Model the fold of this input.
Amino acid sequence: MTVSSTASRRLRINGVVPESSVDGPGLRYAIFTQGCPHGCEGCHNPQTHDFAGGREADADELLAEIGRDPLLAGVTLSGGEPFCQAGVLAYIAERVHAMGKNVVTYSGWTLEELGEKARADADVRALLRATDILIDGRFVLAQRDISLRFRGSANQRIINDPWRVLKENR
Done:
């Protein structure tokens, strides 16, 4: 499924890290979305919570920047909560795949919760389908563990091909 060409190509971001080695496997372009409904105590990115904060960005400009770096393994969508801007991020993810790169998406919602949202929301469905690796679950301060790779707390999971996993578990 591809995202409609009429979908908004603007998104609200807190910022980007053009070359990150801590936000997924390999060298990554990390996009930190702005706006998060979870409000996890001890969140690593509390400045991303306010939906009115951050700045507006153009998806095609971000894609052009990504395309100029041949060393990138992929793109990481973090936040904030990426699934609050699922349509435009699915657009980005599909074009990242066309570049031969992969997509990691972080979400405070679990895969099961996202599966429920995907039933009613085509944008959530499109972003889930375009996500190669999902790191799911709210950050839980009592389960904080800095030794975990790509996760902040022990309850969070790394799920390869989340759309396939959802389909197999139905």
Q: What stands out?
A: Helices lie at 59-67, 86-98, 111-120, 122-129, 162-168. Residues 1-6 have pLDDT under 50 and may be disordered.
